[in-house]
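Hi Y.,

Following your request, here is the sequence exactly as I used it, all 367 residues.
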Amino acid sequence: MNDKINVAIVFGGQSAEHKVSLQSAFNLIEVIDRSKYHPFLLGIDRAGVWFLYPDFYAVANRRQPVPRATKNGVREVALVRKNGCVQVLDLDTFDGLGQVDVIMPVLHGPSGEDGCLQGLAQMLGVPCVGSGVLSSAVCMDKDICKRLLQHGGIEVADYLVLDRDHNVGFDKLVRKLGSPLYVKPANMGSSIGVSKVASPEALAAALAMAFRYDSKVLVERAVQGREIECAVIGNDYPRVSKPGEVVVKYDYYSYTAKYLDSQGAELKVPADLDDLTTKMIQELAADVYTLLGCQGMARIDMFLTEADEVIVNEVNTVPGFTHISMFPKLWQAGGMNGRELLDHLILSAVDNYCSREAMTVRLAGCQ
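Below is the corresponding structure, written out as tokens. Let me know if you'd prefer a different format.
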């Protein structure tokens, strides 16, 4: 009997964050403890087709991660419930290729971070690392997330929501929110589709780009302050890392600054903050995590102004695990390496599933 826990690491997907997902998956597969876990490498291509890869090194590399659906052991698959457990099913032969005990989502953005994959896991009856359907969907939608935070008395940047039929001009937005403005899709991450604008012409171009990714777009007041991030893990009793700081060399923390230019930003881990400010930020991160119903893991992004006000920017329920991502760096600074972090996340998902279902999850063998 195989006593290892079978973990389906799901990556890729149809989101614009496809390449970021591959980079995150690459790092997780490198650090997973294979003495305790057997990973199923489930890659979803841009057409939405699921593949089982025998070796991630045939799928991606750190510099230019590109999925390769070759004939070298790559199989088109689906997840199904069969014989009382979840299995990876070969769609050519209809053979079961193994049981899945836990799903580890590394799908950033729509269809992976917004509750879709979490809903599939819930319907299949298998533990899934991270937040559930509702919290995932709420945190993905920046508009809904901000509304709930405001309702809970937590400060966010002022903003307006526009749809494709909007009739709001640049001057009106500036009167309401000031200048410059940030334009961003409501449901997207990794700074994809985000622009900083200070003119009517720039606004028109920014809106056109943002609407490529979502039918709902936020126009946000620019906040002058330090960019601070906290990593949070856990279920009922969240554990918060020390804050880190992103020092951006660009005009703002764009996709280029994050992933394409190695000199685009400096990550200070931990941030240079006094003890009182550190504690205040950690407590706020825990409050945000709890208020939004997050579980398993999240990264809370905030601004710290010169007046020592903390303004929540975004909440990421599937944070990046790339070699430059803040989430693993913060835990590493706290004494938890990548292998230990992934181990904690997997076992936390199993514990959460058992508590929610009030049943014991069988982690090895099908009946």
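The chain has ten helices and 17 strands.

Thanks again,
Q.
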